[in-house]
Specification:
By secondary structure, the protein is of the alpha/beta class. Helix content is 24%, strand content 26%. The protein has nine helices and 22 strands. The strands form four sheets. Strands 1, 2, 3, 4, 5, 20, 21 and 22 form an eight-stranded mixed sheet that branches. An eight-stranded parallel sheet has the order 6-9-10-11-12-13-14-15.
Length: 416
């Protein structure tokens, strides 16, 4: 069959090839240029049918304003965004709300994320999981939600270690109860954060590991023996290390040292500038390295609101300060984050001195590997075309464009 093609190419551009045959022969190819985040060399990335089909060398760009290309960011702890809460009972959690939160996250360079449900009543958790389960196959979400993170309710009930989780809903691990939540989620819970020192927790870890669910240690006060036992049974990551702990701890016997000491355990860290001091992040990264560290956000739906005091669905008062800190005054603890993972990428680079390649590994590659999502997280032919174009100025990552599954879903005004 004779084929007539009309093509055009612009920098950071689309190459559209149009067949004059039947509609089944119509296909699109895109070519994107940028500086490879890992090699620092200009590259041309070709996308076909939602996948990266080829990566070749490109001409050196003119000017000093470098635009990098990297795999999209993967945030494993998103409690909500853009006014949409995944965790609370009175939120506008609807299919439309989930789509809205996803679109807003795309603007921040997040192409994959785990909606995170925190401690609440089993009725609320079940309802919210049922609603979220629909999003996994929602074509408008484009595969950005591969599963969910359940943080609690099986955590330490003590003030400080419990963090901002409502005490009335904290409970001991219950496998039958969890299975009801798992079924409500469409069997899409991929991570559970719990306190390993709670009665029944170690057996619970074993059963989750056997089911292929990632176990994270968090909001706990476990000793070395218990942390080691949890890792022996399959625990893989410490959730937001350095947080979810009492303000006053024993300098020798505390949950931080055992988790840092065991090389088998990954850690996630919140790099919003409030949850951890620069020196904490620097030490954590030195101990675990870029291979075992994951940058997360712990972002909440309050992120888009004006500074002031707000009431949660459980009646607690929280405060969003003018400088962007979200806190629970009653316990003098933080209440999640008001910043997306994009801020964390730049902040971690600034305080650790790590390379851009390391930062992207911690924000994209490592979480994909942790959850065995082999179709994303790296810039390689055959992987999903989940891509971001961005600049880095004064340690701040500015997203220019975002592609999800080969679709341009965000373009900053004025981006070329």
């Amino acid at each position: 069959m004779n084929v007539k093609t009309v093509s055009f190419f612009i920098r950071v551009s689309f190459l559209i090839i149009i067949s004059l045959g039947s509609m089944s022969d119509l296909y699109a190819q895109q070519v994107i240029e940028g500086i490879h985040y890992h090699t620092g060399q200009p590259v041309r990335v070709t996308i076909r049918n939602g996948l990266i089909s080829d990566i070749t060398a490109a001409d050196k760009p003119s000017g000093n304003n470098l635009v990098y290309i990297a795999p999209g960011f993967f945030d494993n702890q998103v409690n909500g965004f853009a006014g949409v809460s995944f965790a609370f009972g009175d939120s506008d959690l609807t299919p439309e709300g989930i789509e809205k939160a996803t679109r807003e996250l795309w603007k921040k360079g997040v192409t994959t994320y785990l909606p995170t449900l925190t401690t609440n009543s089993i009725e609320v958790l079940s309802r919210n999981f049922r609603i979220l389960a629909q999003a996994v196959e929602n074509k408008n979400v484009m595969g950005s939600i591969p599963g969910f993170h359940l943080e609690g309710p099986y955590i330490n009930p003590e003030d400080g270690y419990r963090g901002a989780h409502p005490k009335q809903y904290v409970k001991l691990p219950d496998w039958d109860e969890f299975m009801r939540l798992y079924e409500a989620s469409g069997k899409n819970i991929v991570q559970v954060t719990l306190a390993p020192e709670m009665e029944g927790a170690l057996d619970f870890i074993t059963r989750c590991t056997q089911a292929g669910i990632v176990i994270a240690l968090g909001h706990h006060n476990a000793d070395m023996k218990t942390v080691t036992a949890a890792i022996d049974r399959g625990a893989k990551i410490a959730t937001h290390l350095g947080n979810g702990a009492a303000n006053m701890i024993n300098r020798h016997y505390n949950p931080f040292w055992p988790q840092l000491a065991d090389d088998r355990l990954h850690i996630s860290i919140i790099g919003d500038g409030f949850h951890l001091l620069p020196e904490e992040i620097k030490v954590f990264h030195k101990v675990k390295g870029s291979d075992k560290t994951i940058i997360t956000s712990d972002v909440t739906h309050y992120a888009a609101l004006e500074p002031g005091e707000y009431k949660t669905s459980t009646g607690e008062t929280i405060e969003l300060t003018k400088d962007g800190m979200l806190r629970l005054p009653a316990q003098n603890v933080l209440y999640g984050s008001a910043s997306p993972i994009t801020k964390g990428v730049g902040f971690v680079m600034k305080v650790t001195g790590c390379t851009l390649a390391d930062a992207v590994q911690m924000a994209s590659t490592n979480p994909a590997r942790l959850y065995n999502l082999t179709d994303r997280g790296v810039l390689e032919p055959g992987k999903r075309a989940d891509l971001v174009l961005f600049t880095v100025e004064d340690s701040e990552v500015q997203i220019m464009k975002t592609w999800v599954n080969g679709n341009l879903v965000y373009e900053k005004e004025g981006a070329k």
